[in-house]
Predict the 3D structure of the following.
Amino acid sequence: MVTYADVPVAPGQSVWDLLQRASADRGLAMEGKDYGGDLGMLVTAIGETRNDPGQRRYWHYWVNSHFAEVGVSRFPLQPGDQVLWKYTEDQFRAEEK
């Protein structure tokens, strides 16, 4: 597991903003796709691990232990929020890669 506890969050900054900054600051490779509208950005790869529709495995995220039901660019963060990423077939399972 990789953690970035020292990445400051500005009020209203999105999960996407935070992930982009962690990517640039720490050399973490990541990719996303913009679906526009209410959905916004979805993460398609973190590091070497890409979403795999054939295996029904995708990157999902939780904020403060709550599963997020919107795209990463649509979830505003507050200082102190914790974001957890899991690569899983079912967003409600605790399985991690």
Residues 15-26 form the longest helix (12 residues). Residues 57 and 89 are 4 Å apart (CA to CA). The radius of gyration is 13 Å.
